[in-house]
Design a protein that fits this description.
The protein has 178 residues and is an alpha/beta fold. The chain has a single domain (5-177), classed as Rossmann fold (3-Layer(aba) Sandwich), CATH 3.40.50. 21% of the residues lie in helices and 32% in strands. Helix 3 links the parallel strand 5 and strand 6 (121-129). Helix 1 (12-29) crosses helix 2. The chain is globular, with a radius of gyration of 16 Å. Bound molecules: inosinic acid and magnesium ion. Inosinic acid (IMP) binds at residues 43, 75, 98-107, 151-152, 157.
């Protein structure tokens, strides 16, 4: 274990098994349908890459980037679109791929935004869910792990743009934040 890690919350093996299971479920649910995976940059990139390789039907992949206005602790639900999709989603089944759902405000914005573009359906898949801080009810069709209200990094998720490359999900030691 790296010396800046306080605790590993989800191991590499647990992630691997879960991503395989989610991929199988998505494969089953979207057979014969035109599916586009919409990954949310940058946190979902690693999850999306592994998930896509466990989905055994042809899929399209595209990405969006968003950021919340203000600091995350005073999140107002106002989300700024930094990068839009390259493709049209009209007539397609959309699966939003997220790293982590916390207040739910980002996902709620994304679902509303994408639903206006004429897709056949819009659903969401998240690796991690922190339900304790939820501010808005948001439908999640596929969920990897429910975790306690703790700030985590790894497997795509960052603190100040670092630690995305850890192959597991972990809490950092307190001194890293100070
Ligand atoms: P929400 O709008 O509050 O659900 O925010 C979700 C976004 O906040 C995620 O996509 C992450 O970018 C960020 N986030 C939430 N919790 C964590 C965490 O524990 N570590 C790192 N980023 C987080
Ligand atoms: Mg994110």
């Amino acid at each position: 274990m790296e010396d800046f890690v306080k605790e590993i919350l989800v191991t590499t093996e647990e992630i691997e098994a879960k991503v395989k299971e989610l991929g199988e479920q998505i494969t089953e649910d979207y057979k014969g349908k035109e599916l586009i995976l919409v990954g949310i940059l940058k946190g979902a990139v690693i999850f999306m890459g592994d998930l896509a390789r466990n989905i055994h039907i042809p899929v399209e992949m595209d990405f969006m980037a968003v950021s919340s206005y203000g600091s995350s602790s005073t999140s107002t639900g106002v989300v700024r679109l930094l990068k839009d999709l390259d493709c049209s989603i009209e007539g397609k089944h959309v699966l939003i791929v997220e790293d982590i759902i916390d207040t739910g405000l980002t996902l709620s914005y994304l679902i509303d935004n994408l639903k206006k573009r004429g897709p056949k359906s819009v659903k969401a898949c998240t690796l991690l869910d922190k339900p304790d801080r939820r501010k808005t009810e948001v439908p999640v069709a596929y969920r990897g792990f429910v975790i306690p209200d703790e700030f985590v990094v790894g497997y795509g998720i960052d603190y100040a743009q670092k630690y995305r490359n850890l192959p597991y999900v972990a809490a950092l030691k307190e001194e890293i934040y100070s």
